[in-house]
Write a structure and sequence with these properties.
Blueprint: E1 6-7, H1 9-22, H2 39-50, E2 51-52, H3 73-86, H4 102-111
Antiparallel strand pairs: 1-2
Helix pairs in contact: 1-2
């Protein structure tokens, strides 16, 4: 956190509550179940959405998060995208999803996560 930034618990809670109350898993044994953030996921969400600069804007407007295979990356990314699109109070919000190559893009389209 930058020296002049501050942690806004309400802003962080808003993002966490949206994800946990309005997002569901979309595949596997958890399909249809509410998205309950585990500790490391919640910390990422709280850091991104709860750390604000003195002007009230988020300190982080870009995040690079590297997570191993089969750790719910796509589901977490989709939940963040939905939050930014629906609950971030940004008029005309636009959210983009990028793939590293054509195979990944094709997979994401087939699975509905891209």
């Amino acid at each position: 956190m930058a020296e002049d930034s501050r942690y806004d618990k309400d802003a962080a809670d808003h993002a966490v509550c949206f994800i946990e109350n309005f997002c569901c898993h979309t595949k596997g044994r958890w399909d249809g179940k509410p998205f309950e953030l585990i500790d490391w996921q919640e910390q990422i969400i709280r850091d991104i959405f709860g750390i604000l600069k003195p002007n009230g804007y988020r300190q982080f407007n870009t995040a690079y998060i590297e997570i191993p295979k089969k750790r719910n990356k796509s589901e977490l990314a989709a939940a963040v995208a939905l939050y930014l699109l629906c609950a971030d109070f940004e008029p005309g919000a636009e959210v983009y999803d990028c793939a590293a190559d054509k195979d990944q893009a094709a997979y994401r389209i087939r699975c509905g996560t891209g």
